[in-house]
Amino acid sequence: MKWVKVIVSFILTLSFLSFPSCAFQSDELLVDDEEFGLEGAPQHRSPEPIPTRSPPVTSPTRKRHSDLDSDSKIQFSLDHAFGDSDFSPAGTFSARLKTWSHGGQFCQTLTKLRFSRNSFSDVEKEKFKNLLESDDFYRIRLPSNVLSPPGRDFIISSVKARCLPRESLDEHFVIHMEGVNVLAVNYGSPGSCPYPRNLKLPAKWSFSSHTVLKNSEQAPRAPVFTEEILGGENAEGEVVQPAERSFWAKYWMYLIPLGLIVMNAITQAMNMPEEQATGQVPAQGQPSAGAVQRGPSSAVRRR
Amino acid sequence: MAIRSFFLFILFFSSSLSPVFSLYEDQVGLMDWHQQYIGKVKQAVFSSQRAGRKRVVVSTEENVIASLDLRHGEIFWRHLLGADDVIDGIDIGLGKYVITLSSGGSILRSWNLPDGQMVWESSLQGPKHSKSFLLVPTNLKFDKDNVLVVFSNGRLHAISCIDGEVLWKKDFEAESFEVQQVIQPPGSDLIYVVGFAASYQFEMYQINAKNGELLKHESASFSSGFSGEVSLVSTETVVALDSTGSILLTISFQDGKISSQQTPISNLVEESLGPAVIIPSSVSGIFAIKTDAVTVFIRVIGEGKLEVVEKTTHEIAVSDALSISEDQEAFALIQHASSEIHLTVKLAHDWDGNLLKESVKMDRQRGLVHKVFINNYIRTDRSYGFRVLIVMEDHSLLLLQQGEIVWSREDGLASIIDVTTSELPVERNGVSVAKVEHNLFEWLKGHMLKLKGTLMLASPEDMAAIQSMRLKSSEKSKMTRDHNGFRKLLIVLTRAGKLFALHTGDGRIVWSHLLRSLHKSEACQSPIGLNLYQWQVPHHHAMDENPSVLVVSRCGPSSDAPGVLSFVDTYTGKELSSLSLDHAVVQVIPLPYTDSTEQRLHLLINADKHAHLYPKTSEALSIFKREFLNIYWYSVEDQNGIIKGHALKCKCTGEVADEFCFDTRDLWSVVFPSESEKIVATVTRKLNEVVHTQAKVVADQDVMYKYISRNLLFVATVAPKGSGEIGSVTPEESWLVAYLIDTVTGRILHRVTHHGLQGPVHAVFSENWVVYHYFNLRAHRYEMSVIEIYDQSRADNKDVWKLVLGKHNLTSPISLFSRPEVITKSQSYFFTHSLKAIAVTSTAKGITSKQLLLGTIGDQVLALDKRFLDPRRTVNPTQAEKEEGIIPLTDSLPIIPQSYVTHALRVEGLRGIITVPAKLESTTLVFAHGVDLFFTQLAPSRTYDSLTEDFSYALLLITIVALVAAIFVTWRLSERKELQEKWSFYSAFASQSTFSSLFLCDN
């Protein structure tokens, strides 16, 4: 099972290579895609974020350069701070750095991101509890360049500490990358954090982390309508037939008045015999009084 | 064929839309107004033509050249040069051409004086950057051709006045040579070019004006160096100041020989004055120096001898010399004295005698006189008369003649920095507004005219009379609030530091106020107005309290200069108070809280990232404390490419205890890689925007929830290479990345890269969508994109039963700390124009559909329905989608000529478009400003909630009367008929009864 997961995540991470994030890009890139065995990658519309669950065992923190220049391992650290305290190391991200040259330019991307979180020490637990009580911010930071940390500046992100505790401490990273630069990190709980934030201590003081690496999406090009498209799709002969509608949908405006007329007729028919029954009495019995009271109706009948 | 049918369809479609915006010819000016300005005048040249209309040609700081009517101040013609085409000099050549030198002396143009047509244009290149001079010698001829002498970019040119051809040129390539003056003594064929080299050497070049030959080159060194400008006191003498500003150097170069004389200022003026500067002027024999407190006029007598003629502590302005006869030169001098200005015209060689001495009452709100231009005319008694054109501190332009202000122009309005609006006073019972009483005859006449108009019998004069009557009769220029909220005050802050209140009805200036706090003072040397905010908007106390605005300014151009706040009453224009702050103002955040007097709380962030709360009252503090934890803001560092989010921390921990000062902390940061991205645009939603509905019902009975958050920021970045001009990079090297960032948590909600695109990016954010405009390098066209963002977390609230039973999460508070579940939809379209500004209409309740207002490169405002920018457009919309109003997808956005909001007018130099909701939901007020101002009312979905102005009430009344009459008539008729029927029945009955009685009798 684990194998399958690893392979799937590997393939998915590889798929990022088809979204080259280095500066230069052209349409011819499709040819290069074959190199990575990912031809026919669908329109660069919305790359699925790759959730990679951090392995429970801390991976060995080694900095090994593989023989190939195109594939090397790097790691960078995550720092955290409690409220306004100083930052201290909290974990390590390790990833493979893919390098390839394209059109004379080197593009580098990270793949196979893994994260190992240091567990809280007792002091940190205490600090975190304080944060929870005061509903303060838990802050993290990453270097803005993974090759030469910290780069230009640190990427900071923070979340209200009360958003994290569930069963354990659940956290969710979305790291926005551009080549080897980290642009921003969306940090927070994986689910919702409803507003009246209640004080709740985690059952387990361990982190379960989800990390997602995100590269930029490519915008679809503005559609260029040529004459062929118009000729093909909007030709005169091909008038788009409106969908067949039901009988009721078509003729309701006739049916409703018809129904009303029928109903009216029925009520009239019901009234008729009654009226005739009552109408004949005054004509015979009390002609003068009845005629005056129901002047119009008898007048009509007389006409 | 297909294309044709397609176009027919488009035409049909556009014609079905167009009536929404278009208006009839006679409706122009009913709801809109247009005002033309030129900006602060830099230079003025009077046309010396004896016959014809008197005019003055001016160049301004807004890069306008204009020809003004000297009698009324109206514009005959004007041209707005580009933003980087700064005018260096203007003059009139041959009495009929206006010559302008612009773009740092590299473009010389000639315009026809009567109509402003361009005659020719020459491009002048040179070896290096230098000061530029334009001389139009009156008697320098070259083959019967008048010659212009231009010094620019280190090269001297002689140019034909007729066709702009360069006759000869001469380079001054010496590295350190800085030209100071170019002199052409009248009546000679020589040109002198004088300047400094290496800041201590005086250089003089004598050049033959016929062929550009260098005749003589002399230089002399002065160990003390030079500072500032030189003043020309005769054709062969200049006066300069040494580098300390305390010694005057009189340098004469008669016959090509340089001789000089040094005179310490302290020899001339007893008390020490500190460093002085020379006031540039060209009056022969006299020059002026100015220190902090004193202005001294000094006369040069003979061989470099100097003599003080006047010393004054008043603010003073001097004009250039005007030659009135062969050996006489006159100049004008203006001095301030409390509420008056004194104008004196003197002869250059006779300081003590005055040709003219006048005092003119001057409005204090105009400030000081900055510039004076003198012109003469011949009076009816054949003596010389003088008039002067003066430019005031508030950038207004006035013509003074015979001790009176003949006309004035409020040209400060050409450079508006910020705009806000204010309501007018509520109409009170006691205060009746003056009403125009018509007598019966006028009333009859008016109606006769209108009748003629409707019967198409009216002559053009009659039509004009009808039009003016319509304008007058409308109540739009009243000074009270109206029911529909059309009448408002536009409060504008100009670059000169003056506040104007314009009435939206007719654009007149209700009041204007030169802010004291923006006045140059010792504490604040160069104050700059920054922004306007609504400080107090009374609703509960609308009857007895006036609204006020906050003007934020700072002392000096650097962002850490201390700030100044002033509070101005918007009904009277009085400055209520002003505060000089001890900290800088980097950011002003109007908070959504008001205190009991309805003053809005503002948070000012200074350069050290401390937050200061205003107003400084304990009540404001208690309100602020309550919301302390819910205040977040962001800052954009364009240069570094960093966006940071901040929140408040605690009270300031500085040495001075200040309970209104707070420390801040950084919550998040987004760092754009400097090698691949550069921030070019950041846009947020308007703070006061109202969204009527959160959900959008789409065709298949489905509901989409808009992601409406006030904390969304749109950021556009481009490749650093591609941030230059369009076409400077190849499509491969250029891209644009669009971001939607949550400003509370710093989450990037959406990020999309467009390849082959280039800025400039113009964007507008409203409700849940953002529209941005850029250039597509691959398609060689401008393009517009739309991004709409929808909330998925509430998407399952579609079940009616859930809504009925209350099992939905629509009313639960939304926390931005939750993980957002959003989807975005986007689409791109080609668009023909490049843009100068973009805005969106806003209405009171947000029900009316939206229009984008695009300020085009042609300085017009185009209204474009938001429906054209709907990412759900498809080539073949289904029937249901068509019913919903989805327009079939086209690759470009249509430009419908009728939808120009500005109809035939142009808002020259368009800079901004502001929309303000009226009280009437269907209507929005639009104010576009640049060098010109334009205001109009728009109804994006027609005025569905009110009757239009031309609604025929008479017809309605007649119809009602006719209906009532008809009811009466038919009632009478029916009664009569009924009576008749009764009678006939009775008679029938009677006959029957007689018959029956007979029958009975028979029995």
From TrEMBL, chain A:
Keywords: Endoplasmic reticulum, Membrane, Signal, Transmembrane, Transmembrane helix. It is a single-pass type I membrane protein. It is found in: Endoplasmic reticulum membrane. The lineage of its organism: Eukaryota, Viridiplantae, Streptophyta, Embryophyta, Tracheophyta. PANTHER family: CHROMATIN COMPLEXES SUBUNIT BAP18-RELATED, ER MEMBRANE PROTEIN COMPLEX SUBUNIT 10. Its main location: endoplasmic reticulum. CDD domains: EMC10. Belongs to the EMC10 family. Residues 48-58 have a biased composition (Pro residues). This is ER membrane protein complex subunit 10. One of its GO terms (cellular component) is endoplasmic reticulum membrane. Residues 39-70, 276-303 are annotated as: Disordered. Residues 277-287 have a biased composition (Polar residues). Residues 1-23 form the signal peptide.
UniProtKB/TrEMBL annotation, chain B:
GO terms for biological process: protein folding in endoplasmic reticulum. Pfam families: Beta-prop_EMC1_N, EMC1_C. The chain crosses the membrane at residues 951-971. It is found in: Endoplasmic reticulum membrane. It is a single-pass type I membrane protein. Keywords: Endoplasmic reticulum, Glycoprotein, Membrane, Signal, Transmembrane, Transmembrane helix. Gene3D superfamilies: YVTN repeat-like/Quinoprotein amine dehydrogenase. One of its GO terms (cellular component) is EMC complex. PANTHER family: ER MEMBRANE PROTEIN COMPLEX SUBUNIT 1 (PTHR21573:SF0). Component of the ER membrane protein complex (EMC). This is ER membrane protein complex subunit 1. It comes from Gossypium raimondii (Peruvian cotton).
